[in-house]
């Protein structure tokens, strides 16, 4: 009996040893190498957590730092968002100090989290920052190309992404084709002159913002599938090669405006600054000029380099797999509801047109009805394009389940999510801020008199600075935000409308 017991014990010990070896091997199978664009890799702790150090300058919001490259999504937390904040796959130094950043990494395929890392960030005064000795420096406005060493590209990404959608696929280099010389807008073919406005946007300014990068990336500059750019448009987190180059010019022209993806469009729908996916979904280009029967484009990874001025015929444009545009959609201003006050009429028209929400009856919208967390997250998820969650934490089939799983994936909510609890105005603005921006905003000078209970309400500062809300005017001439007031249907669609349609934003008081 004793011999049998020892045999069983020995078998258990061997099984446990093999399990531990297997776990170590699984960790090693990630073949993780620190990104050459991110700080100093300190190594892996005994508990399997990767550690980094990085130094960045304070107060320079045009500088961003790519954390890693790869196709993995993360949740993240900063120990002090007044020192370091996040945007898409980048971090920003806000003011001198130190902060700790923690990351949990998830795969593209909905698997459980399998990697954790901690970065120790030191933010120094801008005048003391030396980019030559700080790995991770990248000037992205205008952006520098981020070229990764093919031998050291990690297989797992620790960088937070703006949206949990797939990265644009790298493409084979298209064969060279003869093209006419680039034209100067307005010199010939008046039909293609980037002048006037579309949806309140100046076409000439959009063109000039893109063409200004030609000095930094002249004809023939090396640009391959190793070059990555994180996009602010929102549909994709970013892209390699040609997609990255198109995204870079798009951000130069449109900054943080959200993009729309059109799989069906006419040639007449194409505008300056639109991105076309062509060559059987293998190549991305961006439109510089539009003429009656062709467009002029710019592109990266054209024979492994940057190319300006190639012509695409109208037929080629219309055969594109899809078009990405950042021009706000023109929304009908009429709707069927009879209970709308003027202050939210346009917002409701937009929300219904975009499929964000419908009425409570065929003729009523009920703008004064209060909202739960489930309702508001569902509105926000629809406004973001109904992205597919990367993994499922909440399995109960309810109208809000997909929205809740998406929000959890983005780190917006936790497992303690209470769907039927009423959602306050502060909660609603925080949700939108986390999706649309999530950067730190200084809140000490906010005009509201009723924020005493809130600790550093960066989301409210963002909402004021970006024209999402001006709060309520008080009788004594002051203003209040009413952060604890339960948000109504009319208020949330108005907040969303202003966040996603720049022309609808307010002028701060």
Polypeptide structure, described:
With 509 residues, the chain is α+β, with helices and mostly antiparallel strands. The protein has ten helices and 21 strands. The strands form six sheets. Strands 14-19-15-16-17-18 form a six-stranded antiparallel sheet. The protein starts with a helix and ends in a 9-residue tail after the last helix.
Question: Any key phrases for this structure?
Answer:
about 500 residues, alpha+beta, 10 helices
Strand order of the largest sheet: 14-19-15-16-17-18
Low-pLDDT windows of residues:
8-34, 61-74, 106-114, 134-192
Summed over residues and divided by their number, the pLDDT gives a mean of 74
Helix count, DSSP H or I runs of 4 or more residues: 10
């Amino acid at each position: 009996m004793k011999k049998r017991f020892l045999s069983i014990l020995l078998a258990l010990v061997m099984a446990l040893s093999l399990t531990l070896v297997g776990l170590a091997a699984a960790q090693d199978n990630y073949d993780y190498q620190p990104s050459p664009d991110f700080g100093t890799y300190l190594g892996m702790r005994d508990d399997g957590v990767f550690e980094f150090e990085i130094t960045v300058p304070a107060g320079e919001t045009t500088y961003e730092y790519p954390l890693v490259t790869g196709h993995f999504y993360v949740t993240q937390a900063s120990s002090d968002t007044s020192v370091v904040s996040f945007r898409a796959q980048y971090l920003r130094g806000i003011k001198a100090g130190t902060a700790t950043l923690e990351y949990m990494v998830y795969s593209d395929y909905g698997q459980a989290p399998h990697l954790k890392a901690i970065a120790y960030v030191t933010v120094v005064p801008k005048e003391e920052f030396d980019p030559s000795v700080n790995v991770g420096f990248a000037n992205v406005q205008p952006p520098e190309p981020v070229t990764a060493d093919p031998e050291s590209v990690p297989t797992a990404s620790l960088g937070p992404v703006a949206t949990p959608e797939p990265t644009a696929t790298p493409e084979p280099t298209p064969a060279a084709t003869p093209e006419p010389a680039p034209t100067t807008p307005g010199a010939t073919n008046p039909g293609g002159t980037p002048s006037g406005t579309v949806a309140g946007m100046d076409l000439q300014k959009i063109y000039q913002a893109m063409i200004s990068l030609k000095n930094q990336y002249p004809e023939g500059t090396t640009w391959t599938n190793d070059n990555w750019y994180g996009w602010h448009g929102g549909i994709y987190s970013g892209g390699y090669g040609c997609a990255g180059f198109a995204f870079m010019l798009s951000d130069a022209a449109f900054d943080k405006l959200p993009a729309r993806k059109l799989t069906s469009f006419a040639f007449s729908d194409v505008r300056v600054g639109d991105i076309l996916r062509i060559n059987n979904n293998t190549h991305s280009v961006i439109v510089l000029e539009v003429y009656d029967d062709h467009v002029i484009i710019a592109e990266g990874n054209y024979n492994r380099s940057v190319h300006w001025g190639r012509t695409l015929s109208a037929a080629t444009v219309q055969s594109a797999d899809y078009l990405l545009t950042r021009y706000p959609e023109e929304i009908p201003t009429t709707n069927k509801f009879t209970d709308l006050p003027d202050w939210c009429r346009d917002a409701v028209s937009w929300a219904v047109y975009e499929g964000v929400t419908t009425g409570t009856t065929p003729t009523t919208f009920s703008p004064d009805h209060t909202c739960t967390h489930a309702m508001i997250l569902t509105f926000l998820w629809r406004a973001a394009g109904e992205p597919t969650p990367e993994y499922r934490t909440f399995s109960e089939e309810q109208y809000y389940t997909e929205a809740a799983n998406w929000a959890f994936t983005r780190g917006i909510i936790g497992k303690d999510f209470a769907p039927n609890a009423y959602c306050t105005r502060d909660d609603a603005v925080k949700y939108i801020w986390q999706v649309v921006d999530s950067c730190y905003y200084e809140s000490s000078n906010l005009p509201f008199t009723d924020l005493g209970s809130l600790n550093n309400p960066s989301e409210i500062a963002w909402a004021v600075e970006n024209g999402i809300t001006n709060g309520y005017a008080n009788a004594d001439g002051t203003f209040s935000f009413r952060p604890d007031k339960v948000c109504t249907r009319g208020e949330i669609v108005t907040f969303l409308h202003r966040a996603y349609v720049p022309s609808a934003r307010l002028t701060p008081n």
